[in-house]
């Protein structure tokens, strides 16, 4: 009887099944090394570790043979707990294991609570934190927020002496009354010689331009406009009339098709004359006409060159640029390199095809892809004008190398020499692939409207025009500016008188300035256009190097209190050349500037 009861009592005790080691994330069954209890996760034993099954005769060996994934290591760790449950010993280890697990659980919860800031003692109700904010790590506030590589690069202080000089002059600007000992700005290419004419015209016409006329008033300047320029600026108006449902308009040698609805949106009169294209036609000696439908307006010439860089080249490609050239930088955003093509003073810094071909070949050997030539005509800063023969040679070179040509013609109307200006558009005949040639122009120089920011791209490539119209969204001209400029360009009498007066005043100031410099022993390069004297001061620098040039530049800023641009900032390979913009001063102020330059000359001569 006792034996039967003992047997039944044993049958009522459920036999536990050893769980596989993979359930507890222990070592693989092939290893005999056991992991310390400190490595166990506090939730490793959550839930039931055993479950009942039908009573059978205990035989662990067949179980292991049947399922080889079970681990002897797992059994060693579970046996004490099994013994506690079954009441068969293992009391010490069976007590330590739960205590250790409980300790690590408390440690885990304590660390988790420390990531949350304590509630504010304020009695005012606080908004509940969203799940996205509660998951933010406090470690992020230790390090500085990151910027893009582009922003990091261009946010550094400018190392170009051109920009350094502009910044220093802006801190201490010259004024005849308020600051007579300030720095006179001769480094910025502003044309202030005809500000009186521009001011008088604006005073007479501003109110009428903004309050009346075709499509003007508040409805003509407040709403959104087309990004590539309103057509009224590209084209002048004929006699006003109703918006007719016409199907085509002839402009130059082309006929353009568009619907009556589109015509009503953009035009409120019959289109008969071109506005900006007429001005460019007049400025360039009436030798070439520009089609308004090949033009895209931008906020100045610099954005126009940048947009063309986006259209013609990829990041890491390059343009060839004859030196010396404008020190401004258009490489920041497009990532297009400018490779200097060095010109020499022995040739009056004129471009030759041999130097161009050598620079092209050397760039190709370095693995650089040349996508085009960027050139200024008339040149900045020398004032050279490309001859017709040179333009034809450039066309042949571009076709032979399968590259583009961008010509900046912003000084086309600022001529004063005997040489005749020839536009790139003038030499493009029907036998040439015009899709690789592009012209940039603006009203900043010839019309003294630098602050208006009016530039234009003239291209014969339909894909370039389509892309430029989208990219100019980021450099569009304001509607009031376009309306005012449209009205000014439509005043043919004013434009004719202005161009004549502007050329006359530029010639007068330039001749006087060059003559005064020559009396100080400073000679200037021969020029026919532009607003600069390209002055040779190599005899004043010690030593004859870029270092000596920079030291002389510093003397002009500190001693003479004038800001000029050193040749190294214009990528000139010969030390001692300086760009001096004489159109920022009047004819009456020339003696003041010359006297300040005299101080530096005497200082250099006495020290030598």
From TrEMBL:
One of its GO terms (molecular function) is 1-aminocyclopropane-1-carboxylate synthase activity. This is 1-aminocyclopropane-1-carboxylate synthase. The keyword Transmembrane helix applies. Residues 123-134 have a biased composition (Low complexity). Belongs to the class-I pyridoxal-phosphate-dependent aminotransferase family. Residues 274-597 form the Aminotransferase class I/classII large domain. SUPFAM superfamilies: PLP-dependent transferases. The chain crosses the membrane at residues 90-109. It catalyses: S-adenosyl-L-methionine = 1-aminocyclopropane-1-carboxylate + S-methyl-5'-thioadenosine + H(+). Its EC number is 4.4.1.14. The keyword Methyltransferase does not apply. One of its GO terms (biological process) is ethylene biosynthetic process.
């Amino acid at each position: 009887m006792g034996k039967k009861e003992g047997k039944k009592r044993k049958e009522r005790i459920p036999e536990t099944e050893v769980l596989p080691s993979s359930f507890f994330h222990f070592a693989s069954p092939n290893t005999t090394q056991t992991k310390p209890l400190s490595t166990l996760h506090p939730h490793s034993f959550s839930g039931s570790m055993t479950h009942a099954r039908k009573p059978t005769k205990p035989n662990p060996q067949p179980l292991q043979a049947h399922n080889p994934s079970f681990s002897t290591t797992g059994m060693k760790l579970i046996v004490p707990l099994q013994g506690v449950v079954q009441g068969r010993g293992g009391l010490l280890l069976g007590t330590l294991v739960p205590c250790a697990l409980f300790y690590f659980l408390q440690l885990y919860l304590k660390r988790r609570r420390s990531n949350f800031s304590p509630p504010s003692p304020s009695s005012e109700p606080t908004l509940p934190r969203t799940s996205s904010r509660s998951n933010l790590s406090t470690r992020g506030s230790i390090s500085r927020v990151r910027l893009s590589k582009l922003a990091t690069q261009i946010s550094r202080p400018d190392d170009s002496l051109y920009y350094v000089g502009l910044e220093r002059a802006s801190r201490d600007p010259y004024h005849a009354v308020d600051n007579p000992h300030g720095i006179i700005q001769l480094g910025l290419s502003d044309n202030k010689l005809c500000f009186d004419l521009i001011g008088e015209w604006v005073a007479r016409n501003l109110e009428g331009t903004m309050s009346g006329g075709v499509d003007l008033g508040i409805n003509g300047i407040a709403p959104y406009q087309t990004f590539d320029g309103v057509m009224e600026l590209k084209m002048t108006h004929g006699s006003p009339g109703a918006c007719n449902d016409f199907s085509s308009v002839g402009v130059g040698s082309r006929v353009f098709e568009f619907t009556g609805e589109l015509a009503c949106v953009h035009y409120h009169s019959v289109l008969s004359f071109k506005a900006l294209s007429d001005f460019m036609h007049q400025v360039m000696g009436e030798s070439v006409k520009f089609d308004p439908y090949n033009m895209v307006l931008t906020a100045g010439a610099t954005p126009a060159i940048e947009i063309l860089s986006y259209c013609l080249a990829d990041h890491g490609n390059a343009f060839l640029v004859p030196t010396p050239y404008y020190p401004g930088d258009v490489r920041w955003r497009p990532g297009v390199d400018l490779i200097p093509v060095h010109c020499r003073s022995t040739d009056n810094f004129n471009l030759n095809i041999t130097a161009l071909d050598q620079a092209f070949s050397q760039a190709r050997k370095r693995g650089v892809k040349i996508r085009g030539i960027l050139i200024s005509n008339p040149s900045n800063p020398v004032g050279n004008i490309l001859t017709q023969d040179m333009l034809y040679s450039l066309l042949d070179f571009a076709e032979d190398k399968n590259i583009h040509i961008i010509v900046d013609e912003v000084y086309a109307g600022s001529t004063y020499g005997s040489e005749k200006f020839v536009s790139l558009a003038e030499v493009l005949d029907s036998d040439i692939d015009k899709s690789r040639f592009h012209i940039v122009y603006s009203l900043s120089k010839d019309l003294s409207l630098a602050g208006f920011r009016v530039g234009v791209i003239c291209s014969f490539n339909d894909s370039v025009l389509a892309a430029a119209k989208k990219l100019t969204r980021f450099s569009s001209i304001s509607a009031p500016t376009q309306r005012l400029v449209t009205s000014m360009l439509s005043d043919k009498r004013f434009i004719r008188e202005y161009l004549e007066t502007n050329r006359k005043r530029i010639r007068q100031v330039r001749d006087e300035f060059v003559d005064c410099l020559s009396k100080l022993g400073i000679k200037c390069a021969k020029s026919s256009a532009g607003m600069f004297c390209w002055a040779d001061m190599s005899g004043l620098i010690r030593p004859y190097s870029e270092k000596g040039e920079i030291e002389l530049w510093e003397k002009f800023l500190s001693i003479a209190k004038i800001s000029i641009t050193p040749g190294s900032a214009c990528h000139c390979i010969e030390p001692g050349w300086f760009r001096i913009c004489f159109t920022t001063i009047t004819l009456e102020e020339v003696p003041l500037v010359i006297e300040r330059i005299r101080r530096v000359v005497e200082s250099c001569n006495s020290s030598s």
